[in-house]
Fold these 4 entries.
Entry 1:
Amino acid sequence: MSLRLTDAQRLDWLQLIRCDNVGPRTFRALVNKFGGAGAALQALPDLLRQAKGERAIRIYSRDEAEREIVGAAKAGIRYVALGEAHYPATLRAIDSPPPMIAVRGRAEVLTRPAVAIVGSRNASAAGLAMAERLGRALAKEGIVIVSGLARGVDAAAHRASLASGTIAALAGGQARLYPPEHGELAQAICENGALISEMPHEWEPRGRDFPRRNRIVSGLALATVVVEAARRSGSLITARFAGEQGREVFAVPGSPLDPRAEGTNDLLRSGATLCTRAEDILDIVGPMIEGGAPRADLFGEDAGLARTEPLWDESDLFDVGASATPHTLPDHEMSEPREDFQHASAPPCDADAALERIASLLGPSPIGVDDLARAAQIPAQAVHTALLELEIDGRLSRHGGNRVSLAPRD
């Protein structure tokens, strides 16, 4: 029998998880110690007075919790608590599941089997085409595609599976989508899928929030597929979380000459499963859907990065046993780079901009001209003009099947 909170209990849960220094571990410890979120909130003032050596901790007010729920409801968002009927079973099974998630769209999609597809924001045309191909093929088999609404591979995976339902996990609040230009995509996702967030409704995402989001992306899915990732890509932390969570990790191989494939090739050397087509995923995920056990920890001792990294400023709130072992991930895994992203900008109109865009989408791996034009989102004539100029400059190689790639450098 699933949990069902009353309106008052839902406010208690939201108020408690929004308090300073209360993350998922502290929340669980407080509820277990005092018998409920309401009782924990009543006990917090005394605990704060008795605490020694703790920094000041602000208690989220009842009025703030009520305003958040009312504001979210106006946007069609509901709050689902851990253990309630629409809370995803796969997410519930991870080490630190969010006590409460804000859901916009069709909550029922959260109960269906899912696979995460993630990768580079600055993806090549080949990477975008692969993400689309995998997303479309898996969606036809009834599998929900999960990703992080990021530019590049994430967006391609979402768009390929819009009709059958896709889930986007957000780094910020539902009212603060990142990147902001994906508002139209987010609206389309809600028609058959869902947007979810554990953050306050008006929360502007910060660096630490993206790894939090990544653990949710992997936690929602039976398997995570990394399509394209450089060695300093945030997609690799998603793969690490998946491995620690006992989920399957797939990696699409790439050219050793393309820096955008270095991370995925490293994953393959670490034991990730090779993925070149959707059937590679279906062969392993199929038995898992039917009840097979998840694969053992892929990353072994290295998975401790996902277990012990303090994604929240959680405190061992006065002997409730919630503290985490301090650990710091590399800087690139604690932040989402905010560099300008050329693929997300408006389609270029002049020849120089078109040439720059086409060159950025090309890599050592051959890609069909039609796929390249679709990724570039510019007129076909501009694509062919840019390709001709690259070929004249000796920067383009042509292959059978109307495919092209960047020419290898001497």
Entry 2:
Amino acid sequence: MFNRLVLLIYLTVFRALAQIWKPAPRKPKANALKTILVFSAAGIGDTLTDSVALRALKETFPKARVIVVTHRRRAALVRHNPYADETVLYHKSFWRFFQLVRRLRRKKPDVILMLRGNDPDLWPLAYLVNRHTVVSWPGMTRFGFLISFPVDIPDWDRLHGVEQTLRIVAVLGASVKDKRLVYETREIERFQMRERLERHGLRPEDPKVVFQVGGGRRSSWRDWPVEHYVELGRELLRRTRARLVLTGGIEHYAKAARIQAELPAGVVNFTGQVRLEEMAALLASAKILVSTDTGIMHLGFAVGVDTLALIHCNNPAERVGPYGYAGRHLIAQLEPPKGVPASTEVPMSRLRPADVWPKLEELCQRHFLETASAAHTPSPVR
């Protein structure tokens, strides 16, 4: 109720302001860009998807300063992107809204690119910073009237996330050949994670497989059930020499504890215990990541760990799966029953461990994780 009231206030106020001070476009000169202000303030997966657009901007305009406004909880993603020159933190706060307006106006951006934003005040914020140069796709917001350069992308909902924001930056002439997600781990973070893993009995040479056991609270329809993780984990540990690490948010701790209790001793439960940059360092040390459609799945793509993505039919792999990686990462796609349309009502439990294991086995064979006896043992996964 409160959020709807805030939205209504912003809409009312800024509709009136836009009538007085119209967001009349002033086309920036691409060959004279000095400061590019980018808004990328959504979830982990979306922010990482936007990382390719940052690469496109920096490679196309190497002399321009690329400043990225991002949510304070996602700041690590931008700070670990070498194509971002400066990170500005966004706080969801009325008082900080005006502080941020003043701070960004002082930077005098030549152009403002609104790639993604989950909060309604982001478009008003961009409008107040420089109402003449805001570039975005109006379909993602009710504040389309504040966009001075609306980008027409009629097939937005059919595009992969990487291509969506590349279409936005293409207005400036920015493009890129390498469309892999961007995240660079740091040596100190990898060293600290190695020490932490050793305290849990995991040596650097131990082949680690990570199960990400859940995603965001509002998208639980994408999560895989406990019993399926248990069945897949048993098969992995029975047939390979891998060490298993469970990860997820603090809200997934009970779920991970149930999975851990059903598996052989030695499974490490890191659920709710690692920050974003620590998670990236963990994935950088692992051989394989198994994850549903979560921000951590995208982090796995970006870090470079071979990832098995368990994808729900309501948000299919052609929109959220690996992009630009050839066959490095594998997909297990949930399909709806015959004659049933794809929707959040189709349960992820329909994606059975028997459907997933052959793909995980392929990744294990890629890393020579199978034991000698496992090669002759039929799989009991049902």
Entry 3:
Amino acid sequence: MHQAYITQAYETAIALAAGFLIWRLLIAAVDRFYARRLLLKHPRSATYLSPIKSIVGLALLFIVVVVLLDIWHINIGPAVWSAGAITAVLAFGAQWIVRDLLAGYSIFAESQFDVGDRIEITTGINSIIAGVVEAIGLRTTRLIDRHGRTVFIPNGNIYVVVNLSKGVKRLELSFDLPWCDSVENMKAEILKMAGAAASAAKIDADPVSVHLDDFTPQQATFRISLRAPQGSYDADEGMMRERLVAALQAKGWLARGDTSQPKT
């Protein structure tokens, strides 16, 4: 009997070591496959990396548990039939986990947001968390907020999502410029400057338009409008404004004391 226990202990240690080694190899294989085959061609595939790792880990854990039960000759049939009350208690306690898993499935199925998106999440009454999505798991979503802090949000607590990266934002700038040429020539020149400023700031704007809003005998008010995906120019909006002001000053149309006013 003592020898049988020693043999079972050795087999248990071997099973655990083998399971850990297989888990590490599978995770490395998933990372390598994603890095070489999918991430470069399909950036959205990064969204599924964390859930796939979780599924692989859970499947391997189930197999290891079955192997250990077989090693120790444990018959779980009678225990399962007599564990109705325990199962009910566990089911009641795990309802939050089930809710998080179902909410996580909805996030993936409906493509509400992806890794790298800038989002605002409503988690309760007047409770809004904003940041960049770092990872989406089966139970939680991980954000990096504006202060650089890592925030873990259970998927079941996500009530409303505003995806700023998938929306379109409108930017308008108005300039009071002295009359230096005809209206058509000034509009064409300002349009060229605005397009160059957007390109330099790496803003994918479509389209850029220039309008004459008001005028006096001494000056004219021109309004520059552009539309672009929110996520494409959050960090570069200020750069575009600076490039445009510099171009107008270099042209001699805008004095150093003049400013541009964005309108929403």
Entry 4:
Amino acid sequence: MAESGTRVVVAMSGGVDSSVAAALLVEQGYEVIGIMLRLWSEDNGQAGQACSPHNRCCTPDQMQDARRVADLLGIPFYVLDTRELFRQQVVQYFIDIHASGETPNPCIACNRHIRFTHLLDQALALDARYLATGHYARLRQEEDGAIGLYRGVDAGKDQSYVLSILNQHQLRHVLFPIGEFTKTDVRAMAARFGLPVATKHDSQDLCFLADGDYRRFLRQNMPQPASPGPIATLDGTILGQHTGLADYTIGQRKGLRISHPEPLYVVDKDSAHNMLIVGTLNELGRQELTAREINWISGVTPLAPFHAEAKIRYKALPVPAHVAPLSDTGASVRFSSPLRDITPGQGVVFYDGDRCIGGGIIERPHANSD
């Protein structure tokens, strides 16, 4: 049971996961406050068609659902306007990183700057001890006193990848109430609590796009308009012309509009020369990368290289890797075999079994070496 009088702010979205997280905390005796974030979204005029002007994470219907759940649970509910901060820290980051030739994960940026910095600060200012979310992940106190971050029990829903940015201060003030359960369990609990969102579908896609078309969004918002350029092989042979580097991602095969005896894939983007580099499936694979902005969950940079499992995308399978810290915030990673789709701007996250060791941003893959 919770300590008497322990106050917790729950980040509510109107979905089943955060609603069950709030219900569990109420059941456990916490003093719960629900807060929903109002996030920035482009309007219909920018998208050029009739579609929702609201961020998909906080539509009026979702706000109404979150408020209904809060009323049912008997907890206070507030909406925090973070539109401008979200625009600066997540949307502009998305634009800027694409402009540099990389492909970012905006959910990582949102967790880093919005949920677990700004919202956590707001929770602590309300004299709450914890901020709770509906993420599928688990926390555990280690033998040395540090708080460890672990995969959620439901392997298909585990979200430790996008939580790898959390530091020890944040981990000591967060709760993940549903991390010990599967999605099926969570829906069953929602029905048991009588929550009106028990069968609600999960949200998908980039939440701030009016129509889900990120290529159209980037063409309209990048500082320099996307311009066509050459498509070339690794040896410099020009095969055609691309429509703008932001329209492509590493590993892409469809939409290249070039003719070649073998299937070709995007293997690199040379933003300095506005050139899209393509190659065969064998040329696509890379075995090494360097990463920046590494966050070590324990708060301590490893003193020596180590073996771990690593994920290079949220839905990627973990693979064996040799990780060598280059500095407090950098690392070199060599995989046991070449991987497709190593994409600059995406996260690379390290695991020891179910324990998340840390992660960072992929800076660049390296040519294979013997």
